[in-house]
Amino acid sequence: MSARARRTSFPEVVIERDSDTEKSSDDEEEVEDDVVESDDQEEEDDNEEQKGKEAEVSSAANKKGKAPITISLKKVCKVCKRTGHQAGFQGPTYIDCPMKPCFLCKLPGHTTVNCPHRVAMEFGVIPAYRKRTNNSLDYVFERQVRHRVPSIKPEFVIPDEVNCAVIRYHSRRVTCLEFHPTNNNILLSGDKKGQLGVWDFGKVHEKTVYGNIHSCLLNNMKFSPANDGTVYAASSDGTMSCTDLETGLSTPLMDLNPNGWQGPNSWTMLYGMDLNAEKGLVLVADNFGFLHLVDTRSNSQKGNSILIHKKGTKVVGLHCNPFQPDLLLSCGNDHFARIWDIRRLEAESCLQSLPHKRVVNSAYFSPISGSKIVTTSIDNRIRVWDSIFGNLETPSREIVHSHDFNRHLTPFRAEWDPKDPSESLVVVGRYISENYNGLALHPIDFIDISTGQLVAEVMDPNITTITPVNKLHPRDDVLASGSSRSLFIWRPKEKSEMVQEKDERKIVVCDRKNSKFGDDDDDSGDDFSSKKGKNGKSKSKKPILVTTPCSSSKKKKKKS
DNA sequence: AGTCGATGCTCCC
DNA sequence: TGGGAGCCCTCGAC
Predict the structure, then answer these.
(1) Which chain C positions come under 7 Å from a protein C-beta?
(2) How far is the CA of A79 from the C1' of C7 (A)?
(3) Which residues pair with residue A300 across a beta bridge?
(4) Which helix (H) or strand (E) holds A45?
(5) Which amino acid residue lies closest to nucleotide C9, measuring CA to C1'?
(6) What is an annotated GO biological process for this record, any one (predicted)?
(7) Within a 13 Å sphere around the CA of A364, how many CA atoms are in the beta-carbon half?
(8) CA-to-CA distance for A523 and A535, rounded, in angstroms?
(9) Second label for A324, Cα 20 to 30 Å away, from A4, A116, A336, A553?
(10) Could you tell me the distance in Å between the CA of residue A475 and the C1' of nucleotide C6?
(11) pLDDT digits (tens, 9 = 90+) for A501-513
(12) CA separation for the pair A115, A123 (Å, rounded)
């Protein structure tokens, strides 16, 4: 009996067989066959479904006539390409490849299922503890800053229910969000195509998208502190723009590719951006490690560009300290976050380098006192420095959290709650899914960065996509999320109910072409609620969200 | 329901 | 340092 004939535990498809007596002369193949057999034994023991396929082709190149080609269907792990196990979704639960390090904490020896960081997110985190250096900066902190940070933590208010949304607001994935500084209902959103959305979520059906400002990824935007009708934006097309929100008219303040496309080695993209209101400066950083300053009064570049990160690497984040705007925090792909003094900016003049193990997606000073730093790195760790006046050699805390890099997703950024006086609440989307009543959902996490504890995980059975872009409202208990091409507004449950009393929850489906309901004004669509969970496990889904009419909308006409 | 492809980015050699 | 291989929980179209 040949080896192939004995293989009975999985389906076999013989495409062509010339002669049963012909055997492959290739020794290596013989060995492989043996390996396969032992794997088969495991499969029988496991008694699992056979999925995947492996084509075994006997070369028989030295023989005349046709070679036998046997394709056997058996399970192959798509991660490590070995047999005997399989990674992937089994229903709503993702099974990791046991041959790889933990997908969550990146350590070997276990998978995410029993990773201690998944069981308890605060695992291994040292609760609030400030390293005292007893130097003069510590003294300054005690005198000037400490009283701004209350020692008693207020109760966190979590916006945990979808209040309104526009499905497919953008034609490409959302890259950034920004709330209007004075108008509570205006949300700005940028997308991968460079389009800028202006959404008044008080009037859900009204949708404005400016498509002619940038030609690719809108990476960051900020409102002008001098004029809240004006917004600055940095894009991968190499331009930094200043746009009037009323008219949509845009002025390019900087174009780093004035000669157009000259090849990938010279094409400059703008990523990190922030404003220094005191000095009237826009700070932007590019993909070659340089920082550029633009004077908003003269609309011209100020000084020379300065290399602030390793030459040739992206600088993805810039943040001016809210308390001392001359302090600048940058982060980038050279695995560093850096603190700078804008008054003394030159290459290698940074006050402090904060090393990370991998690329740093974001680095922010705390929003009120500016004395803390939170960074998000693609090594699946949120790092916290409790005081920029203290010892910055090592972070005060490292919180393991799933926010891996994926080329199809906007990079995750942990964002402060600007309303939290204790400066300890942070919001960040989660990459890996969890099984919630038979649905694989990717929640949005609220984390207390002083303890590493998961304060809340916010999800909706209808949002099955990953939500990497999140922004908390500067004044209201509102969370804005960008998930794929859609925008969501969350409010706390009780408040949501109050709002609904006078105006029902509003979910609008955009994109005429892809929606069978056709019209933005059409209120009958259930595209949102009909979305399936992972692996089509939609049976146990609670249909809590439906497309409801906007009662205040005057445009109530049905298409015949 | 299952497959496929668009593709940017990281990191290793 | 440059080039290129490879990429584990995408997402949406067909």
Answers:
(1) 2, 7-13
(2) 10
(3) A295
(4) helix A27-46
(5) A432
(6) DNA repair
(7) 20
(8) 28
(9) A336
(10) 45
(11) 555 568 888 754 4
(12) 10
